[in-house]
Write a structure and sequence with these properties.
about 20% strand; 6-stranded antiparallel sheet; about 375 residues; 6-stranded mixed sheet; 9 helices
Amino acid sequence: MRKVPAPPPRRGEERRSWLSGAPPPRWVRVLPPVLVGVICAATLVSDDRLDIGFLLGAIPPLAVLSYGPLVTALLCGAVIALLTVPAFQLDRPGDADLLTVVFVSVLSVFVSFVRSRRDAQLDLERTVAEAAQRAVAPPLPERVGAVRCAGLYRAAQHGTLVGGDFFDVRDGPFGVRAVMGDVQGHGLSAVSTVASLLGAFREAVLDQPELASVAGRLDRRLLVDSAGTRHAELFATAALLEFSADALRVRVVVCGNPPPFLLRGARATELEVPPWTPLGLGLADAGAIDACTVALRPGDRLFLASDGVVEARDDSGAFYPLADRLTGLLAEEDADPATLPERVWADLVRFCPDVEDDVTMLVLVPSPP
């Protein structure tokens, strides 16, 4: 299965603009030298003295936005030279005006130096933060054992890669197992809980022979994490799946999470899975949790979505009709499972432009070698 390209960002979560720390657009960078050139050309061509010297006062502040201290100093020097060269006759500034321009130029060079140092530090911190977040939730592989995978994750907090949702697919001695969940809260405050749960899941995949026992391990992990903090009340919803070795059967456990959808042909059917309490309440007794076993046919797919998808509402307050939209998307000519999360996301933001919760989608396609 080919990798899914990054989906277009939703409104309010565009790529960083130049007003938010990204490099300025090209037109901002070329504006100072272009302005210098236009003023020089206009004054040299005109027979009369042009009162346009005031435009030169905008060049030092504009240079600060785009250039480092060296280039800013060169542009500021050009401005001072243009004001003092008699051939240009730009307003013939007095001593006070010239000193003002010199002061603004020196101040602009200093501000450019400070901005350059700060931008370098912010870039370093952003790189470290992205590396740490990707270590918590690494990219989903295209295939895990006999299961092909495609996923999509959109954190609610702007500028972050990880929020309160999580998913993972791992191969172990008891088959391929997948988890999707949503912890209490979202954004960076929930990252530590997500990291703890994912670590517990990856260990349980190797140790626990029963899928219900994996849910019990996650439940205990949350209880231990919240034991040392008064009124912590950590909890999480989750859906866990376990594929047989031949990928013809899947066992499903749902703990407060929306049930998976079985995609068969052009029809999307929500699996009837006995629900269980969310994780972290101390109720996940492995012997009491019911696991639903579903027989799979060639071409079947499983679609999982977080509550950020099923609970999204439009302006009228109506919930996003995931089952109906899945059926419509499956009927399209381009029914590649790898692109399904991206197409659902595009449809979701049309239905509800202001999605305020973490959004996670996962498509699992049984595909024995």
